[in-house]
Amino acid sequence: MAPPRCTAPPPPPPPIARETVKAATHKGRLLHRSLANPPHMVASALGSTLHLANGRTVIDACGGAAVAIIGHGNQEVLDAVVAQAQKVSYVHTQSYSTPVAEELADLVLDGKPHGLEKALFLGSGSEVTEAALKLARQYHFERNEARRVHLVSRKQSYHGNTMASMSVSHNLARKRPYEGFEYPHVSHVTPPYAYRYKLDGETDGQFTARLLRELEGEFLRVGPETVVAFICEPIIGATAGCVVPPAGYLAGVRSICDKYGILLILDEVMCGTGRTGTFFAFEQEHVVPDIVTVAKGLGGGYAAIAALYVHGRIIDTLRQGSQAVIHGHTYQAHPVSCAAALAVQKILKRGGLVERCRDMGVVLERLLRRELAECRSVGDIRGRGLFWAVEFVKDAVTKECFDPLIGFGAKVTQICLEKGVAVYPGSGTVDGLKGDHVLLAPPYTVTEEELVTVCRTLRESILSQEARYLYARANSSSP
């Protein structure tokens, strides 16, 4: 039974504890993301569980950042990594290849799915985004369309932390220090984020049509003959929180891109490799991209690896022209990383884990909607497969956001962690400045029992933070 709503300010709750981790203080030499708050030290990890150095355990309900698709500590993957390191640990791809890299490409693109013919393996999602943008430009260059230099993306998107990938992104918090330092030929259009951007009285079909008119209008504004590509996430990831587009949106995008000879790059770094219940997230949208970027689920966290999947028509243009990809990295197709990814992908296919992800996603949605039904601050629950987000609001009717200074979602995340469940926080959900959400992306191997624990813990944490918020308001104290 769901807990009752709070009708009056509760008694003051105890403060949220903050553990001290000796090995991760300012005295160490490792540069952490935060210079003020040290991260929690993980001593070991197995399955869906993280074992912290202080003896506590945590259910990894977000897979780190939607990375650990088969869970932690899989012995088959570890054995594959060791075996490859004993054979060939590194070669430079300007002169050499390795059987493991070739096998990985053949496995993920077996049968040339959706016309995707070639795979390029690099080290991170940011790297493959850069590679995708450069390859798209090279494609047009070799077709004697050198005027194409402009890139169009969407607001509330994220494509990476390197300069070009950050330029096409729209995560304002991460971009702010680099204003004026980015690639200049970029513009952004409205995202297919119905909860926030659909107008009152507007149907899904009307919303989709409006977004497509805006996209085509942007192409016409900058000159379609100057546009290299449109890049977007099939399902928006961490920046806005698992936003699924309305039906027909991506198909409409594909049609408009084709009309003007503009390439379509789909960023599946977070939502791909089975995360949404099909191997490619775009499969459920009935589109065929020109270039796909993937990363997190490819290696499952066992090695740093990402990939670029390229449609045959792009490859054919290069074959007829320079016969080369004018791009490369020292650790491209790294043998040990490829071995880890190959083992992960074999486990994924052999175990039917993509289908399991789809089925467990139905369970997760049901649990979220049941457990959070009485949480006043829950405005929207959205997602697909094992990729779900909960957006918080101050008022569920008006959709008014909490004051960003409160850090509502971050505090829910912290309470969850204190209770033994890790979820992924997001802020600036709505427009880069306001809005909060948390994201769930557990391993595909997660059990129903673990999902029950996760959702109940999330409910308890939300109710706890709601109580703290009400108490602070009632006592006119700083929230």
Automatic annotation (TrEMBL):
Signal peptide: none annotated. Its cofactor is pyridoxal 5'-phosphate. Gene3D superfamilies: Aspartate Aminotransferase, domain 1, Type I PLP-dependent aspartate aminotransferase-like (Major domain). Transmembrane segments: none annotated. InterPro entries: Aminotrans_3, Aminotrans_3_PPA_site, PyrdxlP-dep_Trfase, PyrdxlP-dep_Trfase_major, PyrdxlP-dep_Trfase_small. Keywords: Aminotransferase, Pyridoxal phosphate, Transferase. GO terms for cellular component: cytosol. One of its GO terms (molecular function) is pyridoxal phosphate binding. NCBIfam families: PRK07483.1 (NF005685). Belongs to the class-III pyridoxal-phosphate-dependent aminotransferase family. This is Aminotransferase class-III. It comes from Metarhizium album (strain ARSEF 1941).
